[in-house]
Amino acid sequence: MALLLSTVIPRMKYYLCALLTVCFVVGAQAKSEHPEPGPAKSGGAKGAQKSNNDKDVVLRKNGQSTVYLLSGWGKAEEPYVWYTVSAHFNAEQLAPNGKPFNLFSLSGAQDCKENHFFFYRISYMYYDAKSKALSEVFFKKSKSDILPINPETIESSVKSIICN
């Protein structure tokens, strides 16, 4: 998995946002999701306890998938904390264009004070373990509407980590 993430993270450098809600839906439905981080810790009070910022954090794991908060999340512009959530699937899924994928990432941003978030980029990828090749099979880049962060969701789990 470390080899996979070391390959995925550099390619996903620009996928900074909103994978959380989709990951939650995927966890519930066993469908789609995948990874990415953001740079720079804040020097302010929020950034003081971001000790997990240098490591990927497992948010949820079950027989079908593992959902991660990717390392490197942080402040990009006030008041938002940018992050990427990724999901690795144990079996192939189908992207919106019908191509198989087994990795998904959603980049987004959260406003910790106002308790809301938005998605920015969604990426579906296929990792071939035999050839160790990673390819992006589908992506969509557009800012979603601003959504509230509800308890018991992936976004709430992310908030508890990045907003401390």
Tally of extended strands?
A: 8
- What does the average pLDDT come to? 74
Biggest sheet features: 8 strands, antiparallel
The backbone outline, from C-alpha atoms, is globular
Rg, please? Answer: 15 Å
Helix-strand topology string: HHEEEEEEEEH
Give the fraction of residues assigned to helices: 10-25%
Question: Please, how many helices?
Answer: 3
Structural class: alpha+beta
Straight-line N-to-C gap: 27 Å
The fraction of residues in strands falls at 35-45%
- Contiguous low-pLDDT stretches (5 residues minimum) are 1-50
Task: Name its key features.
8-stranded antiparallel β-sheet; alpha+beta; 164 residues; disordered N terminus; single chain; 3 helices; 8 strands
What does this structure look like?
- The chain is 18% helix and 40% strand.
- It has 164 residues and is α+β, with helices and mostly antiparallel strands.
- Strands 1, 2, 3, 4, 5, 6, 7 and 8 form an 8-stranded antiparallel β-sheet that branches.
- A hairpin with a 2-residue loop joins strand 3 and strand 4.
- The protein is globular and about 45 Å long.
Please describe the topology of this protein.
Layout: H1 2-11, H2 20-29, E1 57-61, E2 65-69, E3 74-77, E4 80-94, E5 100-111, E6 116-128, E7 133-141, E8 147-148, H3 154-162
Antiparallel strand pairs: 1-2, 2-4, 3-4, 4-5, 5-6, 6-7, 6-8
Summarize the structure.
The chain has 164 residues and is of the alpha+beta class. The chain is 18% helix and 40% strand. It contains three helices and eight strands, in the order ααββββββββα.
